[in-house]
Write a structure and sequence with these properties.
Layout: H1 17-40, H2 59-142, H3 148-161, E1 166-167, E2 176-177, H4 179-188, H5 198-201, E3 206-208, E4 218-221, E5 229-235, E6 238-242, E7 249-253, E8 261-264
Parallel strand pairs: 1-2
Antiparallel strand pairs: 3-8, 4-5, 4-8, 5-6, 6-7
Helix pairs in contact: 2-3, 3-4
């Protein structure tokens, strides 16, 4: 046996062909990567360390994306249509409000004109009545010594000049009366001073029967001294009085509301 048989060999063990091929492949790939990097950029560029992968689209994903896009487009169209409808409704409401305001203004103007006309007519009527009353007063003064028939005519003329005036309890003219204030004012025109209230007027002058009435007689309803209403007989079975708030100053027929009694002061 050789004396060198127990000395380990300094030779490296042989590598297998497969390992050598793998290492050669890795080295070649690495060198190839370096070569590409060197050609693409400067010598001192850093090596690529991140790989970006593009998403893979399948047919199902593509269909979903298309469907989502179509839904978004449809929603936009619906929103635009809704906005258009809201704008149209707002325009319509504005036009209707403008038309209603114009109509209200027209009615208000017409009402104001009508009221102004009524006021003018009422003022003219009051002026006419005042002139007529002034004329009656002048006639009464000029005929203070005239016979009773003339005085009765003056009383009746004054009463007829008040036709249409209002009835208001306690009023004493010139455009509103109660029953006794109207009678008192009429006889004042011929210088006869009557009491203010119906009860006392029913006792003034001479009592006469209702079957023997003369123009100018004072009619009363209720008992003498306790009468609740008075008027003046104007002939032809009629009398004139300030009747009530619903009628005002009117001419009425005795057959519809017969008087209890009458007094004669002329």
């Amino acid at each position: 046996m050789s004396h060198t048989a127990h000395i380990p060999s300094h030779r490296k063990p042989r590598r297998s062909a497969s390992k050598i091929a793998i290492r050669a492949g890795v080295a070649g790939g690495f060198l190839g990567t370096l070569a590409v990097a060197g050609a693409a950029g400067p010598a001192n560029a850093e090596p690529v360390t991140e790989t970006i992968e593009m998403p893979t689209l399948t047919s199902a994903g593509l269909s979903a994306a298309v469907a989502q896009s179509a839904q978004s487009t449809q929603q936009v169209a619906l929103d635009l249509e809704l906005q258009a409808q809201e704008n149209a409704a707002a325009d319509k409401a504005a036009k209707a409000a403008k038309k209603a305001k114009a109509e209200a203004d027209r009615k208000a103007e017409a009402k104001e004109k009508a009221e102004a006309k009524e006021r003018a007519e009422a003022a003219q009527e009051r002026s006419s009545r005042t002139a007529e009353r002034t004329s009656l007063s002048a006639s009464a003064s000029a005929s203070s010594s005239a016979p009773a028939s003339g005085s009765a005519a003056t009383v009746v003329a004054f009463l007829k000049a008040q036709l249409g005036d209002a009835y208001i309890m306690g009023a004493t003219g010139p455009n509103a009366w109660d029953c006794s204030s109207l009678v008192q004012a009429a006889f004042r025109e011929v210088g006869v001073d009557l009491p203010r209230v119906s009860q006392d007027q029913s006792l003034a002058g001479t009592q006469v029967g209702t079957s023997n009435l003369q123009v100018g007689d004072i009619l009363y309803w209720g008992g003498a001294g306790s009468a609740y209403h008075t008027g003046v007989y104007i002939g032809d079975g009629k009398y004139l009085d300030a009747a009530n708030p619903g009628k005002g100053v009117v001419i009425q027929d005795l057959s519809g509301y017969p008087a209890t009694g009458a007094v004669r002061v002329l």
